[in-house]
Design goal:
With 422 residues, this protein is an alpha+beta fold. It has helices spanning 15-34, 48-55, 60-65, 84-93, 138-154, 173-184, 193-201, 212-217, 230-246, 290-293, 308-317, 337-352, 366-376, 386-391, 412-419, and strands at residues 38-39, 45-47, 68-70, 76-79, 103-112, 124-133, 160-166, 251-252, 264-272, 280-286, 301-307, 330-334, 357-359, 380-384, 393-398, 404-408. The protein binds adenosine monophosphate.
């Protein structure tokens, strides 16, 4: 029968990969905890409307990348394409604002987008991210950017490009938007079909079009930074002062807009040069209108989302992943059926006491069991044949030396404690 493979744009993580994933997961949980962010876990599917309202009807994600399906009662559900809308929904649903102060939350888990798969771009991928809800203070913008940068630095990635921009607020952005439309309208027919569509509906998105013709047509467009209102301008200046104070270098990139409608004021991206076309490790920004859009009272917020796969690609290419090779403490080699009956409960008992113990399940010969123990990296092998059984003993062989000794079965755990005490 024909074999069935994983769907396009998905991948399997095998045991060896997962040692690296656990390493990263621990690192990110550690830094989030240190900066005061607590985890939330939301469902991987939500009502479609949440993303339509939250992310925006005219974004690429909502227009063409969502995995949307009806449930059995005909309600439209969508596999989450990003984490922020769900976190905001949960924040409102559980009234987290009631505890007062700011809510500093993080998430980690799979996201789903029906994009064209390529290196660093999948249809199911894992994102981790943070959201800070309840303050407009630029110090929280600076904290979030600093935390993201420091996370990558802790992993050994020091040559990051940090792109920073402010895209204004509902007071100043519409004026800029209009200037942009007026500037580009005379050249509209030369734009790519996506940009022609975006021109009237979501013109800021033209600024990050990758099409070379569009790129050349937008070279001389007015820049958002010249149109910021007083409040957005001073917020942006304060953020830059704070980043300077903490020593985080950044590039001002007035063309950085990002793919979600909910952003206001601060937007940023962190890039790693060696990722090629899909070079963004992480992206985020402020979304002061999103909570209201999702049905809550006006609450400012800011966050970022970062991809695990791209991070893994960079760490792998730079050999920055630790070689974790979990090895058993002990390999128990039974010889014959009677010995197997003795060894089986012993293996379980030792494991329950916290020892990592391997044994044979295939009636192998002693020679082949020793080979297996060697392959698994067990430093000690305990052999039990008829003679040892009769004496209630075990023959201990150290793999790095030729000498061997016998230990009473009842003393085996004490022996292991002694062996591994240093
Ligand atoms: P976004 O949610 O689009 O702002 O993306 C934030 C980060 O998530 C990106 O910088 C990538 O690291 C990662 N990411 C986004 N989309 C994908 C995808 N389709 N496959 C893998 N990683 C992705």
């Amino acid at each position: 029968m024909a074999q069935i493979n994983a769907p396009k744009g998905t991948y399997d993580l095998l045991p060896e990969d997962l040692t690296h994933w656990y390493y990263l997961e621990n690192k990110l949980r550690q830094i989030f905890q240190e900066y005061g962010y607590a985890e939330v876990r939301t469902p991987i599917f939500e009502h479609t409307e949440l993303f339509q309202r939250g992310i925006g009807e005219t974004t690429d994600i909502v227009e063409k990348e969502m995995f949307t399906f009806p449930d059995r009662a005909g309600r439209s559900l969508t596999l989450r394409p990003e984490g922020t809308a769900s976190v905001v929904r949960a924040f409102l649903e559980h009234n987290l604002a009631a505890s007062g102060g700011i809510s500093k939350l993080y998430y980690y888990g799979p996201m789903f987008r029906c994009e064209a798969p390529q290196a660093g771009r999948f249809r199911q991928f894992v994102q981790f991210g943070v959201e800070a809800l309840g303050t407009e203070d630029p110090r929280i913008d600076a904290e979030i950017i600093t935390m993201a940068v420091n996370f990558y630095k802790r992993l050994g990635i020091n040559d990051l490009d940090i792109n920073l921009n402010s895209i204004g607020c509902p007071d100043c952005r519409p004026i800029y938007r209009q200037r942009l439309i007026e500037h580009l309208r005379p050249r509209a027919e030369k734009l790519c079909s996506d940009c022609q569509r975006r021109l009237e509906r979501n013109p800021l998105r033209l600024l990050d079009c990758k099409n070379p013709i569009c790129k050349s047509l937008i070279e001389d467009v007015p820049l958002i930074t010249e149109s910021l209102c007083e409040s957005c301008g001073s917020h942006f200046q304060r953020l830059r002062d704070l980043l300077d104070a903490v020593g985080i270098p950044y590039n001002l990139n007035p063309r950085l807009v990002r793919g979600f409608d909910y952003y206001t004021k601060t937007v940023f991206e962190i890039l790693a040069g060696d990722l090629g076309a899909q070079n963004a490790l992480c992206g985020g920004g402020r979304y002061d209108g999103l909570v209201e859009e999702c049905g809550g009272s006006p609450t400012p917020g800011i966050g970022f989302a970062a991809g695990m796969e791209r991070l893994m690609m960079v760490l792998n290419a730079r050999k920055l992943l630790p070689q974790v090779n979990p090895k058993p403490h002990l390999y128990l080699a039974p010889l014959g059926e009677a010995a197997q009956l003795k060894v089986f409960p012993l293996v379980i008992q030792l494991r329950e006491a916290g020892w990592v113990v391997e044994t044979d399940f295939q009636n192998r010969s002693l020679k082949s069991q020793l080979k297996l123990a060697n392959k698994l990296g067990a430093p000690i092998v305990g052999v039990i044949g008829d003679e040892e059984l009769a004496k209630e003993q075990i023959l201990i062989r150290r793999m790095d030396a030729s000498q061997q000794q016998t230990v009473a079965l009842a003393q085996l755990e004490g022996f292991l404690k002694e062996e591994f005490s240093h």
